[in-house]
Amino acid sequence: MTEPNPLAKAEAAVRDAETDTVAVQLALAAVELAKAATAQQQAAQPHACQHPPAKQFDTKKWLVIGGTACVCSIAFALASIAIAIGACCATVCLLILRHLFNDLRKGRG
After folding, report:
1. Side-chain half-sphere of 47: how many Cα atoms within 13 Å?
2. Which end of the chain is more exposed for a tag (fewer CB within 10 A), N or C?
3. 48-76: pLDDT as tens digits
4. So where are the chain's domains?
5. What is the pLDDT, as a whole number, of residue 30?
6. Which residue has the higher pLDDT, 89 or 18?
């Protein structure tokens, strides 16, 4: 078996290149077309938002918010009741003092 010398190898490569030039040109054209299509698609896409994605629903956060709202509403209700009781006491006190003042003025005392 004789091995082909480098010159024979080069001649065989030239013959293969001459026969495959059309196929190689078509393949290169297809690659260039694919590159152009990819570049066009990337140019057509709008820029993506840069903010981080929204977090999932956080149960603990909403339980804390709900608990705080309940505590604040109960505190507001108790404060309102305390103000109402104080207003009633003040009214009764003023009525008693007025009655005493009228009695002292008329000389009943």
Report:
1. 3
2. N
3. 667 777 778 889 999 999 999 999 999 99
4. 1-48, 58-109
5. 72
6. 89
Q: At which residue do the structure tokens 């065989």 appear?
A: 12
The structure tokens listed for 63 are: 């339980």
Structure-block tokens of residue 109: 């005392």
Structure tokens at 91: 């009214």
Q: What span, in angstroms and rounded, lies between the C-alpha atoms of 39 and 41?
A: 5
Q: Give the three-state DSSP class for 50.
A: coil
pLDDT value at 92 more than 50: yes
User: Tokens 């603990």 label which residue?
Assistant: 60
> 0.70 exceeded by the pTM?
no
Tokens of residue 103, six digits: 């009695």
Q: Cα–chain-centroid distance for residue 62? A: 16
Beta strands in the chain (DSSP E): none
107 token code pair: 């000389």
